[in-house]
Write a structure and sequence with these properties.
The complex is a heterodimer. Chain A is mainly alpha-helical. Chain A is built from 13 helices and no strands. The termini of chain A are far apart. The chains are: A mainly alpha, B mainly alpha.
């Protein structure tokens, strides 16, 4: 029972990264913007978030920094896309490369090469004695406040898309921007908003990865999770509530691969580390045929 | 201004016509280069480095000494292969971000075959062609996975190729530490040395693989401009729906394109393993991989459409890389600053180009 609870707890710890990134990508995709550069934001906000958090010893400022970096990247992206109609995928690839370079550059310039890496301050943990002693459930509940933020974000997104008129309109942009425009939705403004909000969520995920999960920064620490999250959105059929399921699933595979790496001495650990990436491809293959994709995702929109 | 010149050009001299044709290009590259170098100068000034010294080191390190030129060419060769690996599928608007993984897999398989055949003592005449073919097939097959995932499951190649990159990294680690391959004396996981007959050798410090790179430039430009496959690639890139209704087999073209792109990246990796490292090492994933994969994308976006311009852009990217290395060693400027410069140049080029084409 103890082992299962630890496994669940670890899974939820990692699932928060996956789910927040997937939710960010999903929010953009619902209005037709494919945030393919999630990995770039993840890296940059991880490095900047950690620097701020460890130098001020205030976890909240670190998360604010991560959110700010994400929002700025999203704003730059959507501005270039909407103004110059640059292909989203090309622009996304360049943004990813920029983010990968920028994260290491900022870290090297501010921290430099040190013997002991800067450590992140602890984040407050929800749950007293009762919550932490529940078997299995404590894995979900006895967690950092950021995990609760992720639960709340999923709930709000679910309510927004399926319970409000504005949410319905925003979904309509993803399906057919022309029709949405005709009924009086300001497509450009909405696309700005969703990209910025989505990128902020990814930025928070990056700060969480550095501050809560790894507790320091390492070059390339995103480990492809920004791209794996795209697999989750596809698994989730671009529905927020299912993104949580996908995040838990992928995190479980990742945690399992760590466990396998330690437990099975004769099993080549490289094969274990390959598993999450192969799982993404496999899950996309299985679910690709039966998902609904927002029809306009990736296309630029102009009125004429 | 370009338009005004173009309209009058029929009555004008050859010089004016050439100028009007070159003007958009000058605008695109001039703006991108001046803005990005300006930003880099500002950043280095803010960080307290001497700006003229930074810029001089960055641009002229390759040309000040023969050693600088040699290392520039040495980097250009694998970069050329990863650039074409992105360039060819990008012609049909599919973005192969897996040149990194294809290169690593091609290199890993080359090392595996060379080590398995080590006891046979094959002469170079047999071994080298065999290894080159291995590298080509391995890289191509690895890229074909992404091709099939796109063709049969409609999975975005950007996602699938990047997932496969991470798989390839672990493959390199696996073969480096596999029983029978591992070199127990190495500090880092690495295989034993490949048989000496697997090395192509150097001429005046430049690896012989530049011959294969030159051949590749020719083959690719013939492929793109003169063959049916090249025509089909261009047609699909221009308008996939129209291309299909004119009877172009989308699936076949897609798979061939991915195979071709991956084969070139694999060849690049194989040549690196055979000639530069003489073994497979875990560091191959970092030293050669990431940088070259991402730079290949950037080098492609610099040139846009013309395959013959790829060597030029690869060479210029390598000039900046050599400059970056020198900057780090002499002035302790982080190499990432130059990486940022390269990405920024490309971003500006892409934006200016989009802006110009929107005006027309």
């Amino acid at each position: 029972m103890e082992a299962i609870t630890t496994f669940v707890s670890q899974t939820v710890l990692y699932a928060t990264v996956y789910t927040l990134v997937a939710l960010g990508i999903l929010i953009g995709g619902r209005a037709g913007i494919f945030i393919i550069f999630g990995e770039g934001i993840l890296l940059t906000s991880a490095s900047t978030g950690l620097i701020v958090a460890s130098s001020t010893q205030n976890w909240f400022l670190g998360f604010l920094m991560g959110a700010f970096v994400g929002g700025a990247a999203g704003l730059a992206f959507i501005y270039l896309h909407e103004t110059y109609k640059v292909n989203q995928f090309l622009l996304g690839i360049i943004f990813f490369i920029l983010g990968a370079g920028l994260s290491d550059l900022i870290y090297k310039l501010v921290i430099g090469v040190t013997l002991t890496p800067p450590l992140a301050p602890p984040t407050p943990v929800v749950g007293g004695k009762i919550l932490s002693e529940l078997p299995i459930l404590s894995g979900f509940l006895h967690q950092s406040v950021v995990v609760y933020f992720m639960y709340a974000a999923i709930l709000i997104a679910w309510w927004f898309y399926y319970g409000t008129k504005v949410g319905l309109e925003t979904r309509a942009i993803g399906e057919n921007p022309k029709v949405a425009d005709m009924v009086g939705v300001n497509v450009t403004l909405r696309r700005y908003l969703v990209t910025i909000i989505g990128s902020i969520l990814i930025g928070i995920a990056g700060a969480y990865l550095a501050i809560v999960v790894i507790k320091t920064y390492a070059s390339g620490m995103g480990g492809g999770r920004g791209f794996m999250a795209i697999g989750i959105t596809i698994f989730a059929s671009w529905k927020p509530q299912r993104a949580l399921v996908g995040g838990l699933l992928f995190a479980a595979v990742e945690v399992f691969s760590f466990t396998l790496q330690i437990a099975a001495k004769n099993f080549p650990y490289q094969l274990a580390l390959m598993m999450p990436f192969l799982a993404v491809l496999l899950i996309m293959m299985i679910f690709k045929k039966r998902i609904e994709f927002p029809a306009s995702v990736g296309d630029p929109y102009s009125r004429e | 201004m370009a338009l005004a010149l173009g309209a009058k050009s029929s009555a004008q001299s050859w010089g004016a016509r050439t100028l009007s044709r070159a003007l958009p290009g000058i605008k695109v590259y001039g703006l991108a280069l001046s803005v990005s170098f300006g930003v880099i100068a500002a950043i280095s000034a803010a960080l307290g480095y001497s700006v003229p010294e930074v810029l001089r080191t960055l641009v002229f390190s390759s040309f000040r000494s023969y050693a600088g030129l040699k290392s520039t060419i040495k980097i250009s060769i694998p970069l050329l292969f990863t650039t074409y690996a992105f360039f060819i599928p990008a012609k049909m608007r599919f973005y192969n971000c897996g040149a990194w993984g294809q290169m690593l897999f091609g290199g890993a398989m080359t090392a595996v075959v060379a080590l398995l055949l080590a006891d046979w003592n094959l002469p170079s005449v047999v071994l080298i062609p065999l290894l080159v073919i291995t590298a080509i097939l391995a890289g191509g097959a690895f890229a074909l996975i992404a091709g099939y995932l796109k063709a049969d499951y409609d999975i975005n190649p950007i996602v699938s190729t990047i997932m496969l990159n991470y798989v390839a990294i672990q493959c390199v680690g696996f073969f480096c530490t596999a029983r029978g391959f591992l070199d127990p004396t190495g500090g880092h996981p690495q295989t034993k040395l490949l048989p000496s007959s697997a090395a192509l050798g150097f001429v005046g410090g430049i690896p012989y693989s530049f011959l294969l790179a030159a051949l590749t430039v020719l083959v690719v430009s013939v492929l793109i401009n003169r063959t049916r496959l090249g025509y089909e690639i261009n047609a699909i890139g221009y308008n996939p729906v129209a291309a299909q209704s004119y009877g172009i087999d989308f699936r076949r073209t897609l798979l061939l394109t991915f195979f071709f792109g991956g084969a070139l990246a694999g060849l690049g990796g194989g040549l690196e393993v055979m000639n530069i490292h003489n073994r497979l090492l875990v560091g191959f994933a970092d030293i050669s991989g990431l940088e070259l994969g991402a730079l290949g994308i950037l080098a492609t976006l610099v040139v846009g459409e013309n395959p013959m311009a790829v060597p030029v852009s690869c060479f210029l990217m390598s000039v900046l890389l050599v400059g970056a290395d020198r900057l780090q060693r002499t002035m302790q400027v982080p190499v990432e600053l130059v990486f940022l410069l390269q990405a920024m140049i490309v971003l500006l080029i892409v934006i200016t180009r989009a802006k110009l084409s929107a005006k027309r």
